[in-house]
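Async update (no meeting this week)

Hi team, since we skipped the sync, here's where things stand on the single-chain job. The sequence we agreed to prioritize is pasted below, unchanged from the tracker. I ran it this morning and attached the output directly underneath so nobody has to dig for it. Comments welcome in thread, and please keep replies under the output.
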Amino acid sequence: MAKNLMIVFGGMSSEHEVSCVSAATVVKAINTEKYNVYLVGITKDGQWIYTDSVASIESGLWKKGTTRATLTPDTKHELLLSEDGVVKKIIPIDVAFPVMHGLFGEDGTIQGLFELAHLPYVGCGHLSSAVTMDKFFTKVIADHAGVAQAAFVPVYREDLEDMDSVVARIEEEREYPVFIKPSNAGSSVGITKAHDRQELIKGLRIAAEQDTKILVEEAISGREVECAVYGHGKNIFAAAVGEVVAAAEFYDYDAKYNNAESKTVINPELPEGKLEEIKEKAVQIFRACDGFGFSRVDFFLENDTNRVVFNEINTIPGHTAISMYPMLMKAAGHDMSEYVEGLIEMAFERSYGAAKN
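Output:
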């Protein structure tokens, strides 16, 4: 008998639109003979809306839907579909697949809801999702794991009330250029590069619009490479490595999604031994962060030194037409329908309570 699978997409983050595109792609890869697929979109203002077609996701018409969806938080984990406040249908959900990026989707919040309900779900757990979404805490973990990364200065939004003091502290510890990043954001939203004090101040204010914590990082000059990691427990592997060739000074949101000149190179030529090192460190970071299911781990290959420098880990990688993760998995011999089914099967292997992984 086919199981009931709930796909959750959209959300209240700055990556809402990217999530919708990713969801449409993932849905098409699901084996509908094994799963009855129920689509639940979360609007930017937090309304849960049921839709019954991928076309409505692609067109955006799902947002005008009138069928509200409510997932019960108890262990019956039922999906209630209602019209005008009246429940019209109750659907028992067997497994959930959050195809969400950024805050309130990739940060452990919805994962916590699923765990409260003991509902099997795809991807990293609530703790792993939370610490990897927060760049500050990811750096703490990477440092403990002994993985090289960019040095940084932490800044809090309230610190900006005394901008002169903040700038003085940053300039004392770091040389220009520097990257300014919101601690919790994805798809390079809110990230800027500062070459001088004026750009630094502007960048701090932009980042503060996205989060209360800000990282000011040293600028690593090098090639941007990404690695796909898949599995859990003893069965974790790094699939393949790709290189980002940005059509801008760095791979910001616009360069990533709106500039056709940005390119990705699968299995790029790398100095001897570096491919293996990148894969090993990707798995190391994934394990250190208690990863489960899949993640994309990003690095820099530093110019002149060829040092592999950890950048960040994404626990729900994008699945748009230009997203690296599906291309890397395909290069390693795993098409999307295969690994998506594997991710769903892994969801049922996750345990809860005292025996939780």
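Quick observations from my side:
The two ends are 28 Å apart (CA to CA).
DSSP finds eleven helices and 16 strands in the chain.
Reply here if anything looks off.
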